[in-house]
Amino acid sequence: MLPHFVQHHRGQARPESVVAGKTWRITLLTSALVRLEYAPEGQFEDRPSSFAVNRDFEVPEFTVHHANGGAEVVTDWLRIVYDGEPFSANGLSVAVTGGASEYDGVWRYGVPPRSNLGGTARTLDEADGAIPLEPGIVSQVGFGVVDDSHSPLLLDDGWYEARRGGAMDLYFFGYGLDYRQALRDFYRLTGPTPLLPRHALGNWWSRYHAYSDAELRTLIGDFERRDLPFSILVLDMDWHLTDIPARFGSGWTGYTWNRDLFPDPRGFLKWVHDQGYEVTANVHPADGVRAFEEGYIAVCERLGLDPSTEDPVLFDPTHPEFMDAYFDVLHRRLEEDGIDFWWIDWQSGPYSRRRGIDPLWVLNHYHFLDSGRDGRRPLTFSRYAGPGSHRYPIGFSGDTLITWDSLAFQPYFTATAANIGYGWWSHDIGGHMFGYRDDELATRWLQLGVFSPVNRLHSGANRFSGKEPWKFPQPYEGVMEEALRLRARLVPYLHTMNHRASFEGIPLVVPMYHEHPREPEAYEVPNQFLFGSELLVAPITSPASTTTRHGSVTAWLPEGTWLDVFTGLVYDGGRQVTMHRDIHSLPVLAKAGGIVPLDGAGGPGSETPIARRDVGTNPESLELLVFAGEDGRFTLLEDDGRGTGADPAQWARTTVVLDTAEGTITVGPAEGNLEVVPAHRDITLTLVGFGDPSDLRARVGGERVDPAVDTNPTTGRTHVHLRRVPADAAVEVRSDGLRELRQRDTESLVRELLNAAHIGYTDKALMYDIVIQDPVLAPARLQAVGADADVLSALTEVVAARRP
Length: 804
Prior knowledge:
The radius of gyration is 28 Å and the shape is globular. The protein has 14 helices and 40 strands. It has 804 residues and is of the alpha+beta class. Strands 31, 32, 33, 34, 36, 37 and 40 form a seven-stranded antiparallel β-sheet that branches. A six-stranded parallel β-sheet has the order 17-16-15-14-13-20.
């Protein structure tokens, strides 16, 4: 095996954690996580598996009572009762008795789980709406189980081995309603989510289309002229030869450039890199290496085969010599041309020459390790291959249909994957195939993409299905362009959450119940999710009302105060709210005191700074969105992009603090490895929901400065512009207005809603007067005069955003 395939895991648990009989073994990893094994021949497995790579946990406290060949084991969280016989519903049970659970949940072996909150699925191929999900590790009754009986075992030399048949190997997660702790210990057992390269967090361009290099140069030039920031270019399968002689089979598998389309691949890819893009190329490996391929002879020589026979070199993921050649010969030559990482598009099922070995897992495992050779930050793009697949990001969710039903399922699908630790799904944003043209659908899908783990626009080969924004009429074109710019500007926030996912075990996107497990309403909004530490997103996934011309979604706001990122409207939490948005925005709310860093600082009077395409580097300017209402603290994390990023000494940290009692915002100074950040930065503080900033004062490095300050009287946003701030200098902004929380001008929102509504002008005037005269009584009076239900709901949202 290639040397970079060798890993070092700690598969063996501490002996003091083990309770065992001749044919069974119970291993207490934590008070709430237990491994349950039954081996008829008494041969237990201590090697790491594709799921469990670390079993070396501290020994928890527990008691044991042996009886009749079995045992009763009790921890602070669990009561395990086992009769010592082959696992059965009568003979093996685990009760969740402690911890954070309100339930006395009892699991019995073989009994279908109740109230499991779901995990994820291998693919959304051809899905038109909801599909069944595999189970996750958490449930409302307090437990989840992962069956690891059939997964491959990882060997010390970098290869793997299939399991012996007949043994049972289960992991019981009994954390009650403490979903966050369950996930943290899941990652301890299975390995952390790797840190993504920063450029992967920007916008991806993808299309199943036989592009030529000239077309792609034109496309990238169009993106440049329109200030549309993409950071990754995806080459679907037509980069290689697909029209091949019939005697070789289909053209889905290929490793030879189509030089009719790409006469100079190396020169083209150098040009793409010079434009600031990384490149991934699609590979369908199932058909192996055939005689027409440019790499065929070299692969045959590596494997000791006779190329004169023109026999195909069969794809065999169970053969280590083949896998070495697959990477070191076949892919290496293409990477030398300029391919940065691979889109592994395995569509051929879980079958291989060795029972129990799924080729998809093999491809994901070794492609990821291979991409990280020579100290590079590894990255792959492939389908989900079961629990433990979070170690091989990024996930490709498959070819969905272009329908509202497909869009409506994706937020739930994405967030629920956190229940099995899978945090980096990449969907075909906008849908891949079939379906229908709907400009609103395409726009709402892209807005969801901005607030998804990965934003990869994609479409099929149909000439009418392209996702270029300029193929849509206004206002959709403009909204799509702004969405793409916003995604690129979010990268500082996303990369900090990237660090959080890798080192704290909290995925970027999680369901509401992860943070609010005891609130029944958190389970009633399956499409709503938390987007990092600061934001809550309730995407709009259904068509707009024909009356209001606004889309709507019923959201649940936890207790506290929430501010809409786009409208600035302030809401009281602890309730459900039906939110209405025109096509220009969707409900994205920050908690009071929230702080969100963005790439790019606008100058005086600038509401929309230009977004950089080169999101892989740390920016020279920052905009910090700061939301009123509570104290807040956020630490921006940045690194040099090399290696795994696991060494905190290589990070730079810039902490932003809002102190409402003092009326101050402080920024920095940056700490840690200052070599990875610019020596000076422009910084714009954008203040949302605060009081009058007219007395605002600022200091940089202790010295008084006079920043440019501008306030939008309609939205109430104030921008404080500071130029060339040294990285090692602290910024302090002080104002009595920072002590206050103030609702934005709602009259302008009422005017906008009524202006857009398709109702009679007399009705509009009447409704406006009712709302302006007495906002508190307006909902009841509007209902009394027979206001249209959708208009009534939209106006009620605005006037009742805060309780009187």
